[in-house]
Amino acid sequence: MKKLNLALVGAGGIGTTVLREIREGRLEGKVEPVLVCDRHPEKLKRIERWFPDCDTSTDLDDAMSAEADVLLEAASVEAAASLLPDALKRFDVIVMSVGALVLEEGLLSRCREVAEVTGHRLHVPSGAVGGLDVLRALRGRVREVTLTTIKPPKALNKDVSERTVLYEGSVRDAVRKFPKNINVAAAVSLAVGDPSLVTVRIVCDPEVSVNTHVIEVESSAGTYRFELRNEALPDNPKTSAVAAYSAVALIERMTEGIRVGT
């Protein structure tokens, strides 16, 4: 297959991980970065050294005119909401800030409408969790899902001396109150297909050093429990390393002829 031309919005932990894999990893020879956008010019200097032929910009609007096959949003809920759904008129889009699809009223339905007209696809990586394939397979048969996210205080910007439940309730409110920490809840609700079936619990625990997500599912097809204990990216304690690797895996799958998993 020909190289996939990639436009990237966000040169933080996830974006940099993807670019490293393009430079000297599993995406080498498969993907070509054509534009990287980030509002911090100092982050772009390293990109310019790594990829001299890649354009860089601090202006988000430049992403919309990139000569790319796919756009990867790895910046923020605000950036995702700004790019969508119009970006789907030009490219396939991978959105890491999945919370935007839950938080912004009507955004998901507008993305569906544009995708149906243009043929471009909106891709939601599995991010920091597993089991989304099971949840998708069980659509219409799920009775309830509970997602418990446990993080150390530094990941939640909290100062607590004991294990504390910060939140328990709906997906929409969880994303609104913890937009930089709870994309997992949005991804789970999208996989289930009905956010009202999902209860989110956010726990801050000074005794833990890794981000943990526990998904418990009750359905007519069976009972399921997934527990993931994720190390954070070295330069971003709020982001699990596997979330970045899930973006790498999704891009890699787009370059391959065989797909494994639902």
Q: What overall form do the CA principal axes indicate?
A: globular
The main sheet comes to: 6 strands, parallel
Q: Stretches where pLDDT falls below 50 for ≥5 residues?
A: none
Secondary-structure-derived class? alpha/beta
Cross-sheet strand order for the largest sheet: 3-2-1-4-5-6
Overall mean pLDDT score? 94
Radius of gyration: 18 Å
Order of helices and strands: EHEHEEHEHHEHEHEHHEEEEEH
* Number of β-strand runs: 13
Helix tally equals: 10
Which range does the strand content fall in? Answer: 25-35%
Q: Specify the helix fraction band.
A: 25-40%
Structural key phrases:
single chain; 262 residues; alpha/beta; six-stranded parallel sheet; five-stranded mixed sheet; 13 strands; 33% helix; globular
Descriptive notes:
The protein has 262 residues and is an alpha/beta fold. It is built from ten helices and 13 strands. Strands 3-2-1-4-5-6 form a six-stranded parallel sheet, sandwiched between helices. A five-stranded mixed sheet has the order 8-9-7-10-11. A hairpin with a 2-residue loop joins strand 10 and strand 11 (222-230). Helix 1 (13-24) crosses helix 10 (241-254) and helix 8 (171-177) runs antiparallel to helix 9. The model has no long low-confidence stretch (mean pLDDT 94).
